[in-house]
Amino acid sequence: MRRTGKTSLVKQLLSQSDITQKHYFDLERIDTRALFSEPNYETIIYALTQRGTDFTKKVLIAIDEIQLVPNLPSILKYLYDTYDIKFIVTGSSAYYMKNQFSESLAGRKKIFEIFPLNFGELLSFNGVPAVTLSFDQSAKYAESEYERLKMYYDAYINFGGFPEVVLADSIAEKKDLISDILSSYINFDLALLSDIRDPTNLFKLIKLLSVRIGTKLDVSKLTSVIGINRTVVENYLDLLEKSYLIKTIPVRSTSPDREIVKAKKVYFLDNGIASLSGDLGSGSKFENAVFNQLLHKGEVAYYQLKTGREIDFIVDKDFCFEVKETATEADLKNVQSLAKNLEITKSFVIGRHPVKKFEGFIWGGFIR
């Protein structure tokens, strides 16, 4: 997604590389786009040679915002195969990248997904020391650590993890930055990816999804509320997920005749965006934050019986989690009971307010 820190990471990688011949190109610059739009790919080599590059030796080239030159995969393939060049390429439009790069660079690439900061990274950005904990370690409550980290965790829940938002000094500045990020995403990235001429319906859909965090997707209901046909809504949902605004998670199923097996739950990949785009309650904010914390721990799913009883999150088919702002032993017993159906022995309750601590309780800020 846009503004997750890709350019900063690329420049850091360039500075750390022992390859002496290095170039960085930003395709948002017109002159750079002109260079990589040359129909004769050898002209690119000639132009860089004029700048002092010796292509008889190894070269490292970083290219930012690659979605702005549609033919770039073909260019990279030719240059990579013909010369001793290593490329680092980035783009904000994952939907484009996955479709255009999937086959043309087969066997020649490694893909890294860059998300907004998780809570551990947020602490690091603020200069706060904190080690990564296993789930069992997270369940060992320490009051002093809660007091030390509480303020940062509240900020993570309310404003998410975009790097510039995390580093902003005031609440007003954080909100302005989040609004700008969402606006850029809708008006620039999605406009580039699709033929959406009027983003109004898309923004309506985003708002509707934000107040449905943690609930099963009901496409028919979304269709009736927005007033557009089902195919368009489904296409929009696919676009929003493949461009990293939302994420859907599947149900974990062992007995299809007793469980809901088709509907997916929806979450946002940044809490700041989710909070901005809808009237989000504190419980939904917390659940969405926990989802983003668990997302980087493994494969996430949920579990629900037709009776409505459910497990909020299952990670790697090994751990079950119930999410409650104020957790109780009864919440833990409920998730443990349901976990038996899945033959999972590790269950926890993740809480925001540690009013009562008990074995199996995890304060959300300890997941990092």
TrEMBL record:
One Pfam family this sequence matches: AAA_14
UniProt-recorded Gene Ontology molecular function terms: ATP binding
Matching InterPro entries: AAA_14 (IPR041682), DUF4143 (IPR025420), P-loop_NTPase (IPR027417)
Domain of life: Bacteria
Domain DUF4143 span(s) in chain numbering: 189-324
SUPFAM superfamilies in UniProt: P-loop containing nucleoside triphosphate hydrolases
Keyword Hydrolase: no
Keywords: ATP-binding, Nucleotide-binding
Annotated ranges, domain AAA: 1-123
Stated name of the protein: ATP-binding protein
Organism listed in the record: Dyadobacter fanqingshengii
